[in-house]
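look at this one:
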Amino acid sequence: MISGVLRGLTAVLHGRARRALDHGYARLRWGGDLPALARHFGTDKWDEHWYAQHYQTFFAPLRGRRLRLLEIGVGGYEDPRRGGASLRMWKAFFPRARIVGVDISDKRPQDEERIRTVVGSQDDEGFLKDLSAQEGPFDIVIDDGSHLNRHVIRSFEILFPLLAENGFYVVEDLQTSYWREFGGAPAEDREAPTSMNYFKALADTMNYREFHPRPADWQPHPLGRHIVALHFFHNLVFVEKGRNDEPSNRNDARGS
């Protein structure tokens, strides 16, 4: 039994040593090129999906900062030896960042310097709040988790208020908004509780000062005052956090 444990530990250490060498090589060759890093590390953020080009646009100005990045979904399903490709991509792209991955399966063999994985569910409020208190506030949160619509919305409502000011919250694979097996609905069903319907409605909340007329006891959406931009791409949305207190240009709506 002891020899089996030692063999497992040796394999983990050898794996980490190989990844450390690979990380150094990738950083030297492609450091600031996210599509190239995504391809090198084998994440589906390039070639299968085309997300890396959009991450490049928004995250390139942040490369040199000491960031805290959380990604929901480590990959590799239940196998602890698989997954972690995008975590390693982020580590190479952000040389001063702390990277945290959340998964419902144990992914500790993917841990290494500046990368930590944690077991938990993305719709568990207590777990997410505790994680944010321990490792946050996060500057970037990326949801590449279950893609169930109810999970996507729940995670956002828990984590976005805890996101650092001027941070980014990104949701991938929004195509499941239209897939019934993930809780989706046809695009023409505007009332269905899908991820796309939710984020499209948030676009309205950014303009809360323009809602007119409205009841005397009306209050804006609790997140509306903290969303300064939403950027939609194919199956992808970026939500930017900041102070949204720009006044209306209607005289009768100012100050509300």
Summary: The helical segments are 2-30, 34-41, 52-59, 85-93, 125-135, 149-159, 195-205. The first strand starts at residue 68 and ends at 72. The radius of gyration is 20 Å. Residues 201 and 232 are 13 Å apart (CA to CA).
